[in-house]
Write a structure and sequence with these properties.
single chain, alpha/beta, Immunoglobulin-like, four-stranded mixed beta sheet, 45% strand, extended
């Protein structure tokens, strides 16, 4: 092998080692479910909070963030993701879960509130509510 191939190989190995270190020591993802409703969660700046809740968007119901809307402490990451139940995948109208991710961006405290409702039904109480208290460091 020539010298250039050794350099390229060394660079690739260095990059892989950096990726592994970041995955092992980088901010972890905190995962919550409906069982965590009403609880308090502590997060570090940069940590990702993932909330997985039962949903069936084919009925018109969806989870929506109602607090906080300012993004000063927690910022929503990406769009709300829907994953159908494995047993019912391919069945029209099948339920599943929606996953909503947030990143902790500043140290403070906030309340994170989600509602499960039909967004166009403005004068109707939500079918469900999910609330947690976030203490961000």
């Amino acid at each position: 092998m020539d010298k250039k191939a050794y350099i390229v190989g060394g660079v690739i190995i260095a990059i892989l080692l950096i990726v592994v270190a970041l995955m092992a020591y980088g901010p972890s993802e905190v995962q919550l479910t409906a069982a965590d409703n009403g609880s308090t969660v502590e997060l570090e700046s940069g940590q990702v909070l993932s909330i997985t809740l039962d949903a069936n968007p084919t009925t018109g119901y969806t989870w929506e963030v109602v607090e906080p809307l300012d993004g000063q402490v927690m910022r929503q990451v990406g769009e709300i993701e829907f994953i159908p139940n494995r047993q019912e995948s391919g069945i029209v109208g099948a339920g599943g879960v929606q996953i909503i991710r947030f990143e902790c961006v500043n140290a403070s405290q906030t309340v994170l509130k989600l509602v499960y409702h039909r967004p166009w039904e403005t004068d109707v109480e939500p079918l469900e509510t999910f609330t947690i208290h976030v203490a961000a460091r």
